[in-house]
Amino acid sequence: MRTLLIAATLLASTVALAQPLAVGTPEVKREVVGNRTAENIPPIPPQITQRLAQYQATRGASFAGWLRDGSMLVTTRFAETNQAHRVRTPLGMREQLTFFAEPVTQVASAPAKGGNGFVFAQDVGGSEFWQLHWYDLDSRSVTLLSDGGTSRNERPLFSHDGKQIAYSSTARNGVDTDIWVRDIATGKARAVVTEGGAWYAADFSHDGTRLLVLKYVSINESYPGEVDVATGKLRLFPVDGGKAAFTTFRYARDGSVFYVSDEGTQFRTLRHHDPKGGAPRQISADVPWDVTDVALSDDGTLLAFASNEDGIGKLHVRRLPGLEPLTLPTLPVGVLGNVGFSPDSTRLAVTINGATSPSDVYVISLADAALERWTQSEVGGLDATRFIAPTLVRYPTFDRVDGKPRTIPAFYYRPPGDGPFPVVVQIHGGPEAQALPAFNPGIQYLLNEQKIAVLVPNVRGSAGYGKDYLLLDNGDKREDSVKDIGALLDWIATRPELDADRVGVYGGSYGGYMVLASMTHYNDRLRAGIDVVGISSFNTFLANTQGYRRDLRRAEYGDERDPAMRAFHETIAPLNNAQKITKPLFVAQGANDPRVPASEAEQIVSKVRGNGGDVWYLLFGDEGHGFAKKTNADYFGAAQMLFWQKHLLDEE
């Protein structure tokens, strides 16, 4: 089926581009190598591929769970894709456990009382029809847990005794995301929440009879509840104000609940509620930023949470029940995630990614606040001291707040030297995501090898800056975020070290839409743009994205079934304004993308070429929403650097 899908996609691409060309349309030069189809992309010079190869050889490691013997699981890449590995001691060897052609994701280790192994998810070719598998460490065997078809199965969650596993699945009708529970001993699975919409399991009660659940509508709207595992009876909890965002939910040992919510606040704060009585209590009220990760120790005596403070992660640990803070060691500055207590509750693991170093796992001994590094990832033999960290800047945009210009945060990476430097503006996807100062080898190559500055803005609609900021681009406010890019171009023009005449834009997914929209609005101020798996028309996107995602995207972009919104989408669609794009464009796409289907790329490529535009097009037949395989990512990265060299550095 995978082969047929890839073949059909490539055939469709060939047929579409083999139609009679409009007058003035440049000739298409196509090269097909395996699953890669490249159009109008010149041969990549060895001086790019050889030097870039070192940057592309960098890799990180992320904490994926503790095993009952005190060793840990990490995910990292030693060949083509991320796989599961075991590490037994600090800086010990990484024992590779899985050896698949497709990446291993969503790894969940069994609790100490459960079996000796872990569950992982895997799809084929980036389709995101993830299937869940059990990896048994004793027998080294792998067992399929889900249906093995075209359902989407995700977020595996063990009960505390390891006897049950909950997960979300579209198996019932392919559209709604239900919650299923599987009995480990019998292998029987059944749906326990089938209310329609997107539901996710958050935590089992300690006796395994109840399950905390969330219905996700959008990034700013979720509904919490509790389901009886045996009967499937669902009880929804009241939401202060009727509508709020909820993320983490965890049962404490005494039956009370810790959770993260933005009820009545701008930011998502950690709260505690005891159903025996009393109002919910804010735990992180003194932290005016989002709480991003929460963990409770198995013995119920410790609580850990991470906060995202202007893009930098901060770790907090409290002793229960009194919530006294524990002394912690100084951690490397960076983005924090994957926090998890060891089975004996004496240690805490955390993944840290810094702007100048890939992700690695650190472990804190809680008794003496000692810090140990468990993994040390490679940087391709490069001199890591040459890596450049960004500066956080804020630039004024078009509207005002409390009588003052609104400012937009951006991470500014400046190359060594005096300039004036060409600039790449890199726009994140989501749109409800947040650009973070994480390690990016491509950015480091631009800085050190091509002397190109990089600006990474968090335009309105980005997460991490409060509820009001998050909502500023919804529905018919969509192009206000594009104006934030125009304001950034204005800011660039005020900087003597930056060359405002040599600016390119880059973005993926929604960021790809932002690239195309920026090129229609600011074509005369840009040199070129790279659109990766981007949206070219919200109406065609909503018609063709997978059914399980459609309502989620309508909540953000607007409902195309409303004639007024549909007309607005038609007005702002880059596809319908493609005649304004006269600067070089590079479009890259995965053929199996379930989120932004390849038709979004095909139609903008065809339209811009029909207007006589210069377009590079890259299609991978074995990828989805992004490029997960190293060979593919490496080729795209090299083509990207050649594109910037040609159009920003004026070098052939």
Task: Summarize the structure in words.
This protein is an alpha+beta fold and 652 residues long. It has a domain at 2-56 and 382-647: Alpha/Beta hydrolase fold, catalytic domain (Rossmann fold), CATH 3.40.50. The strands form 8 sheets. Strands 1-2-38-37-36-35-33-34-32-31 form a 10-stranded mixed sheet, with helices on both faces. Strands 3-4-5-6 form a 4-stranded antiparallel sheet, with no helix packed on it. Strands 7-8-9-10 form a 4-stranded antiparallel sheet, with no helix packed on it. Strand 12 and strand 13 form a beta hairpin. Helix 5 (478-493) packs across helix 6 (510-521). The model is unreliable at 1-23 (pLDDT under 50). One of its GO terms (biological process) is proteolysis. Residues 1-18 form the signal peptide.
Gist of the model:
The chain has 652 residues and is α+β, with helices and mostly antiparallel strands. It is built from eleven helices and 38 strands.
